[in-house]
Amino acid sequence: MHSELAGLMQDAASLHRFVRFLREFCEERRATHHYLSSSRAFFLYVQQLAEKTETFLQRLISSPEPTYRSPRAERKVAALKRFWTVLHWLIKPAADAHTLRVPVPLLGLLERHLRSLGGFSESKVVTLLSPDLNYFQYRTGPLRELAAQVTLMLDAPPFPEGLGFIAIPYSQESRLFTNLLLYHELGHFAFETEGNAAGLLPQVDDALTAVLGEQFASAPEPLRSWCRGRLVAWCEETYADLFATFLIGPAYSFASIELFNLLALLEAPRSLRFDSEHTADAYRFNEQLNYLKNAGWWQCLGGAKTEHQKLIEKLAARKEEEYLYPVPDIPQLGSLLIRAFLRVRVPVRELVAKTCKECAADTRPFVAYSEAIWRYLANATVPSTLSLGGEAFHPPEVATINSAFLFSLASLSRLLAKVEGYDASRPKVSDYGQVAGRIELWTMKAIEDLALLSRRPKVG
Amino acid sequence: MPILSRSEIRERMKREVDNPTSLVITPLLEEDDALDSDSINLRLGSYFLLPRFFQQPFFCPDSKSSSFLQVSVHVPLGDYLVVPAHQTVLGATLEFIKLPRNVSGQILTKSSVARTFIVIETAPWIHPGYRGCLTLEIANVSNTPLLLYPGRFMAQLVLMDVSPEEPAADERFNPKYLGPVYPEAPSFRDPKDDLAAIGIPETWVIPEREPGGQRRTRSSPTNR
């Protein structure tokens, strides 16, 4: 064999084996586990693309010499390798997230929420199970660009329309309450899909010019671009937080406290600090609390405040002047960037309101049903059918989640006191944890039931 | 011990949850089909525990072993599970039940299901005040593999008044199976503790564990 052809053959065979492994991996997982429809669509795409890739590689090797040696062919193979490297990264955490490992009822609710937003009726999100103790959204923009190139090259099916990726830390797989943070990642997905980063640039530039003045106008372009990047990233974080708060209410803020507490992020200096991608936690809770108060949620939560509520209020009360963003080598720039950013808050709030206004979490069902939901949970009973005054009611999912979360924070001891063998004078962490877990389980079951009950064919 | 009729079941379902005599069944899909004149038809849920290939020569019911016995499987509504001939699987009802404090229940295989030689219960008695989805010990005792699908009516729950009613005391929940919504692995006390409670000081029931966690069966205890 010609030495160049031998080299190419080795290269192609290596890629072929790699792709075949991924295809068979997806086939095996699909045959042995159940997945949500979004994951199934992703695996099907991978399998179809793998077949096309294998055919392409064979055709390339079989083609006459000038074709396989051409720079064009090399570029194609390089693009394929890049794309399959990205897919390799996504496939394993997606395969790990089968239906026994993810909170299926919550993901169902999340997808129904997403599809009810204008412009997202065909959207789906693939859940990834991540080794990081953090939630994140995988940006699909660069992936889609590569996919479009590969589709054209292989005559392969296009990358599934409206498909996004969000990740759950594997330790939280069966939890309900902390997984409400997925709504934040859904917000990132919406922000990216709507192209809001580009849409906000004029306001970002105006704010930077207003605060930095000539300094910004005369700065070299890389620095200007870096400043814009910080503000856009902070806008996106604000958008994602408000998006989640709009759709799921205070339960999102409580879930944030749960995770940040676990990560020990809420001590004072840290909670005031911005970083290049994230706003300070104190700012985040200020924005959320501001919305929750305006929407009437905060007033509905009842008189005796839980520790979570107190902490949210305490963090939200920190003065804006205390926020920090240290920029090495350029003193003052960080605080000026924060000042500029705070001027763009209003357009971000407006963007979220525009996207979510039809689906904003309503306080009225919470007010109507929360007391009953608490009674059901205190009686160790799934609160999906509430008997009130001799009539059966099915509370909406968001009201159920908020009521149950608040019950778990405020009144768990009511339930604990009824458990045989529990001694209030010698409380055990494990008992508390077990009962807290049960409340999440019953709430998850209630979400599952409510989805079924709402799907029933209506009579008449 | 009179059996609760459909009208009595409906009446108790209308009572508020704090009332100790209230009954909760949720979700009650297609109520008219679900309520018979003297029983409630219950559907199969989506979660199962299947027997695991067991590496030890036998299963010992102690506090550490129960989760090794089975493997969880989720079968979404719309999909199915095949139970091979002469095999068993743990399932649960789709419905979550809260029984009144003065009512016992008995769960039975629906006759149409029983005629395919599926048995769903070997521990059919449900104590007053029970909460949870009911665990179904499903056995295919036929010679044919049989298909099960979540959402199908599988069981009949018959409710009976406990009379005279036990004196009202503060209601306490058993932590062993606290409101299960999926089939849960069995929970056992260690045989040593179990037997110590009736005055048996020495036991040879629990096989010794080797350092790697593997079990070694002590066939002839030297201290007997």
| Spatial sequence of strands, sheet with the most strands of chain A | 1-3-2
- Strand adjacency order, main sheet of chain B: 1-6-10-8
The number of helical segments of chain B is 4
Largest sheet of chain A: 3 strands, mixed
Tell me the quaternary state. heterodimer
Distance between the termini of chain A: 75 Å
Q: Give the number of DSSP strands of chain A.
A: 5
Low confidence ranges of chain A: none
Category from helices, strands and their pairing of chain A: mainly alpha
Major beta sheet of chain B, specifics? 4 strands, antiparallel
Could you characterize the architecture of this molecule?
The complex is a heterodimer of chains A (460) and B (224). Chain A has 460 residues and is mainly alpha-helical. Chain A is 66% helix and 5% strand. Chain A has a 3-stranded mixed sheet. In chain A, strands 4-5 form a two-stranded antiparallel sheet. In chain A, a hairpin with a 2-residue loop joins strand 4 and strand 5. In chain A, helix 2 packs antiparallel against helix 4 and helix 8 crosses helix 10. The longest helix of chain A has 30 residues. The relative contact order of chain A is 0.08. By secondary structure, chain B is mainly beta. Chain B is built from 4 helices and 14 strands. In chain B, the strands form 5 sheets. Chain B has a 4-stranded antiparallel sheet with strand order 1-6-10-8, with no helix packed on it. In chain B, a hairpin with a 5-residue loop joins strand 13 and strand 14. The C terminus of chain B is likely disordered. The interface between A and B is large, with 38 and 34 residues.
